[in-house]
Amino acid sequence: MAYPSTVKIVEVGARDGLQNEASVSTEDKIALINGLCEAGLKHIEAGAFVSPKWVPQMADSLAVINGVSVAQDVSLSALTPNLKGAEAALTANIKEFAIFTAASETFTQKNINCSIEQSIDRFKNVMELAQQHDVKVRGYVSCVLGCPYEGDIEPEAVLRVCKQLLALGCYEISLGDTVGVGTPNKVKSLISLLLQHIPADKLAVHFHDTYGQALANIHSALELGIATIDSAVAGLGGCPYAQGASGNVATEDVIYLLQGLGIDPQIDLERLAKAGWTICRALNKPPVSKVSLALQAKCSS
């Protein structure tokens, strides 16, 4: 089997992970991002410029981003769902914006109170600002393999949204299995269709591990040539639509999988695990990552 020779990891724990956890201090977030950089991660979602009324965990994103010490080759991104958020992100010298919509009309209405078409239209001024300041924009599509309200989502619906975001100017589309219901065969069906219309290097996968299928789904995506994977250190985050379920696939588990396939993501697994242990102590919870727990047991034995 020919896997990608290199794989890009987009670390989402500091944003997508922590926004679904109990609040931690600004200093804890800064320490997490610094620790991730020391482990070798080069692409890190560092915060979200959204209303603190709706996402209080991200209210200090500007202070976090201004407080981190990262090397020049590390790319920090931030969620910027509207022009106000994008303008705030620019003050932190962010060079990559993230915008999001969904492949489900019902989810989009309930999540951001508009239709899919309206959500994409709202991003036009964000894209204009990004182009003026030489900022890249990444698009996220939620519910690509299932929706908590509509159930199964047709791959053609995902393709339509991906095409719209690419036409808008996004350089990459992250395919989100928001409720973690995807299975390898569904992943193959979806990505096979998308690859008939979209180059593999413009697609990323963002799997949640709600039903324990995330690593199997990632393996299926790798077999099809997808070489960008979103993940969260220690498996940070949860699934708001499945009480008590795990959320993002753990970066440690993804790295271990890649190493086992002969793919070197150039990330120090032990340092990565330690960054996860530190933030988990701040959250007063154990890591969700199986690899992290195994390393923790090994270190304490």
From TrEMBL:
Matches recorded under Gene3D superfamilies? Aldolase class I
The answer to whether the entry has keyword Glycoprotein is no
Biological process terms from the Gene Ontology for this record are: ketone body biosynthetic process; L-leucine catabolic process
What Pfam families does this protein map onto? HMGL-like
Q: What InterPro entries does the record tag this protein with?
A: Aldolase_TIM (IPR013785), HMGL (IPR043594), PYR_CT (IPR000891)
Q: Which pathway, metabolic or otherwise, does it act in?
A: Metabolic intermediate metabolism; (S)-3-hydroxy-3-methylglutaryl-CoA degradation; acetoacetate from (S)-3-hydroxy-3-methylglutaryl-CoA: step 1/1
Q: Which domain of life is it from?
A: Bacteria
Gene Ontology MF annotations: hydroxymethylglutaryl-CoA lyase activity; metal ion binding
Q: What is its EC number?
A: 4.1.3.4
Q: Which UniProt keywords apply?
A: Lyase, Metal-binding
Class of the enzyme per the UniProt entry, highest EC level: lyase
Pyruvate carboxyltransferase domain residues: 7-273
Q: Please give the family membership noted in the entry.
A: Belongs to the HMG-CoA lyase family.
Q: What is this protein called?
A: hydroxymethylglutaryl-CoA lyase
The organism that produces this protein has a lineage beginning with: Bacteria, Pseudomonadati, Pseudomonadota, Gammaproteobacteria, Alteromonadales
